[in-house]
Amino acid sequence: MQVFDQLGRLTTFFRGEENMQDLYIRVQHTPSIVPRLYLMATIGSIYIKSKQAPAKDVLKDLVEMCKGVQHPTRGLFLRNYLSQITKDKLPDTGGEYEGTGGNIHDSIAYVLQNFNEMVFLFSRLKNEGPVKERSKREKERLELRILIGFNLVRLSQLDGIKLDIYRDDVLPKILNIIIKSNDQMAQQYLMECLIQVFPDEFHIDTLTQIVTACQELQADVDLKTIYIALMDRLANYARQFPENIPNRDEQNGGANIIDIFLENVEKISDQRMELSDVLAFQISLMNLALQSYPDKIKYVNDVITFCHQQLSTAGDITSTPLLVKLVKKLLLIPIESYKNVLTVLQLEKYGEILELLGFDDRRSIAMDICRCALKHRHKVTNVDEIRGLFELIKPLLKDEEDTTDVDEEDFEEEQNLVARLIHICDSEDTDMLFKVYSTARKAFGQGGVKRIQYTLTPLVFSYLSLAKRIFNAKDREEKAIKEDKVFQYVIEILEVLANQQSDMALKLYLQSAICADLCKLETIVFELLSQAFMLYEEQDSKIQLEYFIMIINALRQMKNIGNENYDTLSTKTCQYSSRLLLKPNQCKAAFMCSHLFWPMEHNESLQNADKSLECLIWSLKIVKSCMADQKIALFIEILNVHLYQFINNNEKVTVDYLNDLIDVINSNIGSSEEEFGVAGAATENQNETKTVAPIATFYRNTLEYIKLLKSGNSKFESITL
C-alpha cells in the first residue's frame, strides 16, 4: 500500500510532462523488471490521460508486458495495480476515451486478458513451495482471491456492456476462464462474484449458460452455495420488479427459469450434492418460484414433489437435526407465502413430507397451519377441503403412535386453535355445510375425552347457526337436510359431552332449546329441556341456583312452545325451587319463578297472573324460615320483583302488596329508611358493616326509583313511602 501511495505521488509529478511517449520509453530501461513494470503502469496511465496515444494501444502493451512477472504473488499485485490505475481510463460507450482511443470491445478484451492471467497466477500459487506449507498457502490464497474478483467488478462498471454483448461475448469468455482454471477455490469465489456484480436482468437472460457451466466445475466446488446465491438474487429482484420476470425465457428455448434449475439439479443431485444441500437448494428454488410466479402453484408443487422423491429414499430423517430443520423450513414457506391453507392443500406430496417428521415437529407445523387459517380466514367450503386440512393437523386431533406428552397450557392452546377452525367453515349450500360439519364431528370424536371438551362446544353452536339458516331459507323445501336433522346431530353431541362435561352440556342444552324453539320444533325443544333438567338434578347443590336462573331465562325466551308443554316445564321448574338446599336460595328461586308466568313478551298466551302471584306469596312464606340477618335483603328483593310485576301490569299484584312489603321492611330495619342507613353506618363490627351497607344502598335506591315513578304516573301515587 505504501508503494501504491508513492506511485500515486509520482503520477502527480509527471502529469504536466509534454512528451509522454519519451517518458514511457525511458522507464522501460529500468533494470529490475518488477519496478520497471510498476513504473510502466504508472506512466502508461498518465500517457493515456494525455491522449498522446490511443488508450487501446497503451492498455494492450501494458497487459502484455506484465507477463514478464510470473511469480504468482508479485504478478497478482502487479496486475491488480494495473487494473486499479487504469480503471478510469478504459474506452467506454459515451466515455472520454472512446473513438480514437478505442471502444467497449477493446476494454473488454483488456480486462478479460488481465483477468485470465490473474486466474492463472492464482492457480499456480496453489502448487508453489513445499507440500508441508500447503495449508499456509491456502490461507494466503483466501486473502488474495479478492484481487482477481476486481476484474469482474471492472467489467460490470462498463456502461457499454449491454445484454447482448454480455450474453454473446463477455459471459462465455468469463465462464471459459473459470472452468479452465481447474481450481476449486478460484471457481467457487469467481462464480459467486459473477452472480453478485452483474445485473439481475443479465442473469435471467443467461440462466442456462450459468447453470450449465456449474456442472463443469471441479467436483469439490460447493454448487449449493452458488445456486442459492443466484436464486436468492433473482427472488429479490422478482419481489421488487415482478413485471420484469418473463413467463417464458426465449433465450433458453422457451424454458421457464424454474424449469432450468429443476432440470439441472436433477442431473447433479445424485453425484454432486448431499441430501441437505439438495433441500437447501430446493428451498431457495421454492422461494424464487413464489416470488417470480406467485399465481402458478405448479412450480411449488414440482419442488415439493422432487423433495419427496429425495426424502423417501433417505430413511429416517428424525435423527438428523439439519435435515429436520430444512424440511420444516420447506413446509413453512408455502404457508407463510400463500397465506392460504387451501392453496397448501393443492401441494400433492406436502402431507407425505410432513409425515416424515417426528411428532413434536408435526405438531408445530400443524399449529402454524391453524394459525394461518384463522388469521386469513379463507373459507372451507366442501368436504375435501376439511378432510385435507384435518389430515395436515392430525397431531392436534388425536393421539398417534409417537405422541409425546404436551404441557397442559400448550395442550389447551392447541385445542382452542382446533376448535376455532369450525368458524372458518362456510358454504352457500347448506347441505354441503352440513356435510362439512359432520366430517368435523367425526374427526373431533376421535380426539378422546381430553379433546372433545374443547372442540365440541363450538361445533354445537355452528350446527345451531346452520339450523336457523335452513329454517329461514327461501328454498327450504328443496333442501335435502332439514333443521330437524341438524338437531338430531346436536343431541348426539350433547349426549357425549354430558358424560364428560355436564355443566357445559347443560348450558348447551338450554341454548339449543332456544334455537329449536325459533325453528318451531316443539318436540325437540321439550326433549332438550328435559335433558337439561336431568343434568340440573346432577349438579352440586352449591351451584344449582346459578343453573336454575339459566333455566328460567331459557323458558322465558320460548316463542313457539305449546301451553301444555310449557305448563309441564314451568311446573317442574317451580318444584325445583323448593328442593334447593339453603332457605335463602329457595326464596330467591321462588320469586324468580314468577317471571315464568308474567310478563311473557315473546308469547302472551303463556302468561298467568295468578301463578305469578302464587310464586311471590310462596317466597314470602319461605322468608319466615330464614335467619333474621337474611330476611331484610330477601324482603327488599321480593319488593323489587313485586314492583316489576306491577309496572308490567300484572293485575294480581296490587298497590296493597307493595305497601305491605314496605311496611314489613321498615318494621324489620327500623322506623324509617334514614334510621336503617344510620344503623348500618354505626355498626361496630366491620364485617356487619360491609354486609349492611350494600343492603341499605339497595333499599334507598329502590325507594328513590318508586319516588321517580310516583312523580310521573298516577298509577303509582297510592304507594306509601
From TrEMBL:
Transmembrane segments: none
The keyword Protein transport is annotated on this UniProt entry: yes
Gene3D superfamilies: Vacuolar protein sorting-associated protein 35, helical subcomplex Vps35-C
GO cellular component terms, A-Z: cytosol; late endosome; retromer, cargo-selective complex
Function: Plays a role in vesicular protein sorting.
Protein name: Vacuolar protein sorting-associated protein 35
Pfam families: Vps35
Native organism: Naegleria gruberi
Membrane association type: Peripheral membrane protein
Compartments, as annotated in UniProt: Membrane
Family stated for the protein in its record: Belongs to the VPS35 family.
Keywords: Membrane, Protein transport, Transport
Domain of life: Eukaryota
Coiled-coil ranges (or none): none
Major place of residence: membrane
InterPro entries associated with the record: Vps35, Vps35_C
One GO BP: intracellular protein transport
Keyword Membrane set for record: yes
